[in-house]
Amino acid sequence: MNPCMRSYIEHLERDMPSHVIRVKKEVSAEFEIPAILQLVEARKKQPVIIFEKVRNLNGTISELPVVINLFGSRERLADSLGTTVAKLPFECLAREKPVPPVVIDRAKATVKQVVQKGDAVDLYQLPIVSHHEMDLGPYLTSPSVWVKDPETGWTNCAILRVYVAGPRHLVVNFNAARHTNYYFNKYKALKRNVPIILVMGHHPAFYMGAQTKLLTDEPEIIGGFMGEPLELTASETWGDKMLVPAQAEIVIEAEMSTSEVEIEAPFGEYTQYYGGQRLNPTCKVTAVTRRKDAYYLDIMPGHADHLLLDAPMIEAYLFNRIKAVVPGVTAVSMPVSGTARLHAYVQVKKSNDGEPKTVIATALSSDYRLKHVIVVDEDVDIFDEEQVLWAIATRSQWDKDIVTIPGMMGTRLDPSANDIVTTKGGIDATQPVDRRSFPKRITIPESVMSRIKLEDYLAPDVLKQL
Amino acid sequence: MAKVNYVACPSCHKEYYIDRILSDVLETNPNQILKCPYCKQEFNLGGGGDTKSGHDSKSGAASTAPIMRR
């Protein structure tokens, strides 16, 4: 059986217990779960939080616990792929290869333990979370939305936000420039509704595989990330013509209209501002299937839980683009402080003084959302923002190390931009190649650092306080 | 800085931001149903009937407030 979200949480509770918190006291799905997460984050911690007793939209206690912040830690994402934080982007690249799925009998599919169809469906039974004050209402934030190309049969997977407008009524938001819309327009030309599958809750490797940006049959790429064929089974609504992940926590099946649109948003975007109200396609839910003891997965919009999930893949793509012109690039980091989209820190072992600005120009033209690039030397840890800011403080001069490029294409979600047109830039915070012209950084002898262990000098109770 | 478009809810009188495409739709179809994120009431800017084409339609309250640009 495929690894699943349940098996991953069991692993965390067994092997990484500081990464999981369980809340047994009753909470409301309306704002209280996000409030508790935000207060935990304020303590500079990013555990998975499991809320065991959550009041749902019907005003009763839901059968399903809510899991939030599953993806809020690079350490956990790396662990889920069996690698380290520094190697995570490269591990993503290595796994981005097709492994065809397998179809299994529904009797072996845990997602079929509870089946609701037609009028028996009531999404309000689920503990659907309202996140931010001005959001239009409760939103599904974790669904990997599957849409099948009516021509090729390929399935696209994209994590989309979905407004819950009624007990069997959804409104789905997707980007006009992305693959979901590409397939949507094919159905529109055929004058057919779009069959969609919303997959909620699976192993983190599933989600990272589902977030790659390839135009292919993406369940095959999910198999690559999971390291084994993804198990699929027939849907309730379309049978073998539309398959669903067999070991997901919850699957929602729906028909998306290609002619009817409805109001959706405001909603808290990744930039941590509200996006404006807009029109999006309506969907009628046809079935909900789930595990008997399913977890309800929520992804907290605009927080690390949301921002980090596809950051390693973006970093990997960016690394490859830079590597093609500056072979000395050693690492790329997209920090949460830049919403994991707008800032990139690039570490290089440079061979000439023109390389940092070449890195900046290459990176800025490789991802339309990326706005600021800071280039540092190989002695600066790009996953430690204090070190990056130290490099800017001591290794850059604003009259010669700053690059500014006005009039580039950016993201409309950046409120400082002029619609889609933005000014991008970068900072060369590297030392000159000729290190003799630059002071030497302070260090403690490596022979001493390697033999000193704090536990040899500090009592356990003192060590625990640190 | 980008220019942004706002509408005011006729029920609670609070203003909120709408996207550029919806703003263009409202120019030609002021009866398009909107929903206030604060008080959750549905309304339209034209005072006409409901033009929402989806299910669960309700008649919208009328507003005389125009789209505001800042």
Can you tell me about this structure?
The complex is a heterodimer of chains A (466) and B (70). With 466 residues, chain A is an alpha+beta fold. In chain A, 24% of the residues lie in helices and 28% in strands. Chain A folds into 2 domains: 5-307, Electron Transport, Fmn-binding Protein, Chain A (Pnp Oxidase, Chain A), CATH 2.30.110; 311-437, UbiD C-terminal domain-like. Chain A has helices spanning 5-15, 32-41, 74-80, 88-95, 179-189, 204-210, 218-226, 304-307, 311-323, 355-364, 385-395, 446-451, 460-465, and strands at 20-23, 27-28, 48-51, 54-55, 66-68, 102-103, 114-117, 139-140, 144-148, 155-159, 162-166, 169-172, 194-200, 231-235, 239-245, 250-264, 267-268, 274-275, 278-290, 296-298, 329-333, 343-348, 372-377, 402-409, 421-429. Chain A is globular. Chain B has one domain (5-69). Chain B contains 1 helix and 6 strands; from the N terminus they run E-E-H-E-E-E-E. In chain B, a hairpin with a 6-residue loop joins strand 1 (5-8) and strand 2 (15-18). Chain B starts with a strand and ends with a strand. Chain A binds chain B through residues 134-137, 165-166, 169, 257, 259-263, 265-266, 274-279, 282, 284, 412, 415-419, and chain B through 1-2, 4-5, 16-22, 25, 32-35, 37-38, 40, 52-56.
